Amino acid sequence: MRSAMGALLLLGTGCFAECFAEEVPLRIAVTDGWAMPMVQIERGRPTQGIIPDILTSLATQVAMPAQFHVLSRARLDGAMKHGEVDMRCYVSPAWVSDRDNYLWSGPLFFQRDLLVGAPGTPSKVVPAMLGQQPIGTVLGYTYPTLQPLFENGQLRRNDARSQEQVLAKLLAARYRYGVTNQWALDWFNQRHTADQQLHEVAVLQEQELGCYVRNDPKIPAQRILRTLSDMKSSGEIDAIIQLYTGRNADSGTGARSP
């Protein structure tokens, strides 16, 4: 009797399908090559950072539980192509070979890629003028500005698993220069004394980045993109970035908060 009454109650409230339907997650790709303040990964799961904070808010606003998938850079394109994940952020269309098969947001982030030096190295260098030597890089990442120098043997890649590891190896004198972005450099330096801080020696590239979503009728892609646009225009995305970096999201300028 109780079971029958329960079923009638569900029908009467109009939530029979909703109450038994499993929530469809928004599956989000996160690369294991990132470092704080973009993301902190513990036991294979993101625990904090700019990207998970923004995308958790996005998922809440589109009424889908966020499900993060931590992947190597080499697996990202295949995971999107084969429907293992639904969206990816902090990316340029130039990085994606089949970019026309997806739906793209407008610009949401501004990235400065830097060549950085260990303590005691010159304050400014011209990469093309460097002698033969290893350069700290992230496994699977491409560096268009330096690629000709890698190809002619003038510079050699010394790959690490993440940007944080690149900077740690640089501080440990495994090489004299490494590549990172402005956010990761600021975060790393905040945690070291003045005599151990790394410094920018050259700007390699500046570019605007966004998000893209699989063009699949099972995914509310247009609603996701509209929500991202609203989050950008309302200042929510910039506020999250500034909380972690103290920098203006569009220009990359500004002093770090203490």
Q: What count of helical segments does DSSP give? A: 9
Indicate the proportion of strand residues.
Answer: 25-35%
Helix and strand sequence: HHEEEHEHEEEEHEHEHEHH
What is the gyration radius calculated from CA atoms?
22 Å
CATH architecture of the largest domain: 3-Layer(aba) Sandwich
Structural class: alpha/beta
Task: Bin the helical content.
Answer: 25-40%
CATH topology descriptor of the largest domain:
D-Maltodextrin-Binding Protein, domain 2
Quote the average pLDDT: 87
Q: Spell out the CATH superfamily of the largest domain.
A: Periplasmic binding protein-like II
> How does the major sheet shape up?
9 strands, mixed
Q: Count the strands?
A: 11
What is the number of independent domains? 2
Highest CATH level, the class of the largest domain: Alpha Beta
Outline the low-pLDDT stretches: 1-21, 251-258
**Terminus-to-terminus distance:** 64 Å
Global morphology:
globular
